[in-house]
Each structure stands twice: as structure tokens, then as C-alpha cells.
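hey so u asked for the seq, here:
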Amino acid sequence: MFEKLITEGRNPNTLDIDKLDTLSMLKKINDEDKKVPFAIEKELPKIAEVVDKTAERLKKGGRLIYIGAGTSGRLGILDASECPPTFGTDPEMVQGIIAGGERAIIMSVEGAEDDENLGKKDLIKKGLNNKDVVVGIAASGRTPYVIKALEYAREIGAYTVGITCNPDCVMKEVVDTLISPVVGAEVIMGSTRMKAGTAQKLILNMISTGTMIKLGKVYSNLMVDVKASNIKLIDRAKRILKLATNADDELINETLESTNYNVKLSILIILTKMDKDSASKLLDESEGYIAKAIEKVKS
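ran it, C-alpha cells below
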């Protein structure tokens, strides 16, 4: 069974890796890593489809839920946990679930990934509904925990996505959209935390970032929904406002303080010279898009 999986193959390019000097060893790892972005490039149309459908559902109150086991589950949790500080999202909007629960984030929980009923149970606990998006992550494309979770999600009408590095897999039968970059055999046979894990991380970055851009949380290429919750982020908020408006430091500080460090609202106030209430109303009418709000003022 496993010997037929691309990710479980033996890499002919690294048969001598245990005999090489350190630099040569690392070069071989780096050469294999270079293949990952090119494999993902072939999947961009599918990733774009996922971003569009995810943004559409989140606008209607849905959630983006990643689910996986082992490395795959940890990567989902990592991406989900970065959304609130990066994009100012409610923690409920993007969530990660791992087989075995929180303990599995830092250590292996034996047998959790093979429990066919556990994935469904974990989604039921989350109150999954047909507005949600469920992204199952499994390098092999066959993990029972993930497969059964996806089957349940699809049954109730959630939009289902699979991320795997084995395109000819069980997962393709249970999802609406399958993203399957073929990265080839790992540097060390079976160590799917390497190229497969890198591919998963890059794809999750694209899905969450692309979705947040579609939700109006980016102006130009600036992270305008950042939550200024510590000294570093307060400084970042000021810098973003400076780059967006080119205003002087005094105006930047005054405006941020008046909006309780709402960077997006502060940008709109400075660029349009509107009062806070009017700018806030316009931003709501523009679904949070600064560029759209500015166009309305110009027109």
C-alpha cells in the first residue's frame, strides 16, 4: 500500500547522503527543496478556486477549518493561529484541528490518525455547518482521520478541500477540490515533514493570505488589519500608516490614538480627510476595502 505512494518512495538522488560532507549534504537537501515551488505552480488554478470559494463563504459568516494529523495537523494549526495577529481576524474565523487534540501539537499521539470516527467527532464539536470550508491536509492522501472528517463535511454541505502530495489517492474521491503538488520522494525516505510539509505550508499561506486579501484586509500590499497589541505591533501600525499616507508623525500618532489604533480606519481618515464616524460608515459600506472606499469618495 505505502510503497505505491510517491511520498514514500526512495529518492535516487540522495542514496549517498550519509557519506557526504556537511555542505554537500545540505546542497542535496536544498536541491530537492527547490522542486517544491515548481510543483505548486501547476496547482495554482485549483488554489485560486479555493481562495475564491473560501472568501465567498467567510463573507457570509462561514469559517475556514484545517484538519490533519501529525505534521499536517501542526501546519494547519500554525497557519490558523497566525491569522488573528496578522489580519485581525476573530480566532473563530480560521481554525486548526489536529488528530489527538492539543497534546498532539508537541508530541505524537499513537493511533489518533487511524481513528476513522475521531475526525468526524472533532468537526461535530466545532459545530460544523454548510457555510464552512474544511481543508483536509494529508501528505499521503489516505489518512483515515482526515478522510472520514472530509466525508462528513461534504455530507452536510461544507466546501471540502484536500491537500496532498499523492494525486492518485483516496482523498480525491471525498473532496470538492483536490490540491496535489507532486514533489517527489523525500530526501530521507518517508520524512514527509520535509518537501511535502514545505509544500503544505506554502499552499496554506496562499489560501489564508489570498482569502484575507479578498476580504479587504490588505491595502496595496500593507497589512492594514493588524492588531497593535504590543510594542512591536504598535510600531508596525505607525509604519504602515506612514507608508499608506505619507503623513507626518504627529498626525499619524493623533489619528491612531483617536481610532484606538485601528490602522485601516486611520488610513481612510487621513487620505479622505473625513471625520471618524463618516469614515467608519464608508468603510462598512465598502465591505472593509480601503481602495473601494476611496473610489466612492472620488466618484
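Residues 195-214 form the longest helix (20 residues). The first strand starts at residue 64 and ends at 68.
lmk if thats what u needed
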